[in-house]
Amino acid sequence: MKYLGTLCLLLVFVSCSTPKAMFDYDRNTNFAKYKTYNYFPEVETGLSKLNDKRLFRLTDSIMQSRGFIKTATPDFYINIETAAFEPDRNAGVGVGVGGGGRNAGGGVTIGLPINSKRNQEVVIDLVDVREDQLFWQAIVEGYFKEEATPKERDAYFKAILLKAFEKYPPKK
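Structure (tokenized):
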């Protein structure tokens, strides 16, 4: 029983992970030439209108804090797509109790799921407007709580976007 508290604490840390990101880019790209941006004219994020507004507002904030200017005639477009999927149902922690003696044994085990949230993948593409070529991409996976408050949604999308743009522009 003295390990029950430690086990509960471990489950909390395992289930509350930060967003994970993967990056890819064209190594021949001169990132210094990109100063202005905008969104694809018909961007479809797959989110609600309110979440779209959050996502675009937070993206604008991050881009402008890094010196980029949003304009009608940009150097590059930003495209954002999302997809939600159920986490692996086999992910869990097994807890067991057993005992035995005199050539006899027995045990009881239960499986505890690690998370009950939905996974969400956010793909951010940066496309050169003049050449119509993808030159940078980030794919970020996070855990989206559908019953989140507006404040929690802001924090979630901010964490996703900061992770996505963490390595943009790439260091050569």
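The longest strand covers residues 133-144. The CA atoms of residues 124 and 139 lie 6 Å apart.
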